[in-house]
Each structure stands twice: as structure tokens, then as C-alpha cells.
Specification:
The chain is mainly α and 209 residues long. The protein contains eleven helices and no strands.
């Protein structure tokens, strides 16, 4: 074996953690409602890519360096907070007519933009990095002969189950898009709400110690 113990406990815990709403959840819901199922799925791919980056970083010890260096943590933290506030601010300050037109023209937000934003919002969240180095080692034997492989296996499992749940969210949220097509003003309310949540999440991340 590669040194993993209590795998089923890890799997159950990971699924429950994935079900807990966070900034990734709000991002995926907002993009799926705005652009439909395809944009939602691309957003999920972006979030998943970010999680893979965190998994590899944890396996190679880079996340440990982030946790050990106050300066490195602060740089990533404020960059992530600024990006979230930027995304939220754009949604809050966008003209009402532009938001209403966007729901009728889902390609306004192209797939690459949805993917890129998903990657950055996840990668620039140091709390995710700290989560990986705090959670995964609990299920790896101290004397495991292949610790990197064990990290990658656990991280890959967590990312996979998280991606499945995010896909459910994206496809489920996209089903409500027809309602927003018929009621553009409701879309404006959702965008303002999600934008406010992004700003709040950014501020919360900025004040994280």
C-alpha cells in the first residue's frame, strides 16, 4: 500500500466538506444561471483545475511553505481577496440593461473567461491550500514509503468528488435560466446578490489571519 489509512472515513468526510457552500459554490451558481449549462460546466472545470494545483502543491510541500511564511500567505491572501472583490464589484456596478441583455446572450461571458476566473478564484484562496495540508495528512501514515503518491491519491479523490457535486450544482442552476430569460429583472437581483456575496467573501478573506 501507499500509506493511506481510514480511506472510507476520508471519503465520507470529503463529500460532506464538498457539500458545504463556499465561494466556489457561489461562483458556479452565478455563472450557470447567467450563461447556461455549458458555461457552468466550464466554470466547474476551472474550479477543478485550481483544486488540482492545490493538490500538487500540497504533495510537493509548496503549501507548507505558504503556511510557514506570513509574507507569502499575505501576498496570496490579498491577491485572492482583491480578485473576488473585483469580480463582485463588476457585478454590482454593471448597468441594469447590460445584465438583462447578458441573460439573453450567454456568449457575452465566453468559455475561456469562465474557466480562467474559476481557476484564479480557487488558486488565489490560501485557505484552500491550508485546508489541503491540514486535512490530507491525517489519513497518511507517518512512515508511508510514498507520501507524495498518497497526497496525490487523496487529493485526487477529494477533487473528483468535489467536481461531481459542482457539476450537479451547475446543471441544476442552469435549469433555472429559462426563468431568468422570461424575467430579466430577476437576473439583475441575482447578479447584485452574488456580486455582494463575492465582495463579502473577498473582505472576509482579506481579514483572515
Amino acid at each position: 500500500m501507499i500509506g493511506i489509512h481510514d480511506f472510507w472515513l476520508f471519503l465520507i468526510s470529503g463529500v460532506l466538506l464538498n457539500l458545504t457552500p463556499g465561494q466556489d459554490t457561489f461562483y458556479i451558481l452565478g455563472r450557470s444561471i447567467a450563461g447556461g449549462a455549458r458555461v457552468g460546466v466550464v466554470s466547474v472545470l476551472g474550479i477543478t483545475t485550481g483544486s488540482i494545483v492545490h493538490t500538487i502543491a500540497a504533495a510537493l510541500g509548496l503549501s507548507a511553505l505558504l503556511a510557514a511564511s506570513a509574507l507569502a500567505f499575505a501576498i496570496v491572501k490579498f491577491a485572492g481577496a482583491a480578485y473576488l472583490i473585483y469580480l463582485g464589484g463588476k457585478m454590482l456596478l454593471a448597468k441594469t440593461t447590460a445584465l438583462a441583455d447578458d441573460i439573453l446572450s450567454p456568449h457575452t461571458l465566453n468559455y475561456w473567461a469562465a474557466y480562467r476566473q474559476g481557476v484564479l478564484s480557487n488558486v488565489l484562496n490560501p485557505k484552500v491550500a491550508l485546508f489541503f495540508i491540514a486535512f490530507l495528512p491525517q489519513f497518511i501514515d507517518a512512515n508511508a514509503p510514498h507520501k507524495v503518491l498518497a497526497f496525490l491519491t487523496l487529493g485526487g479523490t477529494f477533487v473528483f468528488t468535489g467536481a461531481l457535486w459542482c457539476l450537479v450544482l451547475a446543471l441544476g442552476a442552469a435549469r433555472f435560466r429559462s426563468f431568468f430569460v422570461r424575467n430579466p429583472s430577476a437576473r439583475v437581483i441575482v447578479d447584485r446578490t452574488v456580486g455582494g456575496l463575492f465582495v463579502a467573501l473577498g473582505v472576509r478573506l482579506a481579514v483572515t489571519r
